[in-house]
Amino acid sequence: MKFVIVDDQEFMLQLMTRVLEAAGHSVKSYASSVEALREIPVEQPDCVITDVVMPGMDGMELGVELRKRPDLASIKIIICTSKSYDFDRRRAKELGADGYIVKPIR
Questions:
Q1: CA 21 vs CA 3, 13, 52, 67, 73: distances in Å
Q2: How does pLDDT run across 61-84, given as a tens digit for each residue?
Q3: CA 31 – CA 8 distance, rounded (Å)
């Protein structure tokens, strides 16, 4: 599978990249949602894993923008965040997320 990871924390980008590559997946990572939004249509990943709290465009907004594009409709979107409230989980689902992972990842 092809993954795109979006997180403004370098440590998280490195950690998720290592885990996914070790499992045999292809990974591209971006520290900015704005940059990722430009590149995702080119990359055509199977799945986007994104943090929520980031400068500029947050991960929820990124998900909304991806869901607006018919050519990207099949991409799975996973929210990976330290926000563990049910409100945030419901919001992510309402905005089109396919999954929700709470940091720290164990």
A1: 10, 12, 23, 26, 24
A2: 999 999 999 999 899 999 999 888
A3: 4
